[in-house]
Amino acid sequence: MAKIKIVNMMFYGFNGLYEYEREQGQKFYFDVEVTTKNDKVVETDNLDDTIDSGAIYAVVKDAVANKRFRLLQALGGHIGDKLLAQYSVIAEVKVTIRKPNVPISGPLDYVQIEIVRKAQ
Questions:
Q1: Could you count the other beta carbons within 10 Å of the beta carbon of residue 93?
Q2: Is the dihedral of CA 7, 95, 55, 4 positive or negative?
Q3: pTM across the whole model
Q4: Of 2, 85, 90, 91, which one has the greatest count of Cβ atoms within 10 A?
């Protein structure tokens, strides 16, 4: 197996439990870790045996730009499911999302969720 990690992608999105969050929007930060079913790419040096990191970025960007979710877990699951459906070389996807501006009365850096999806 081989792993590809993209760390700290930033997108402006309109996700949140409260209506004002979905109307005003805010920055969200994403990490995606993809594990391939094998490490054939190491021997072949062929893009067909792995997934291009630009394709991963595009899936995350599309999900944030074209979907709205109340819960970050749903957004993370959507991204993981979309990657698994589009790329048969993927065995597992881990999506981490950080939301810095949360409606919690107290000092904190961000709220973070992590979702893991596995190929069937």
A1: 26
A2: positive
A3: 0.92
A4: 90
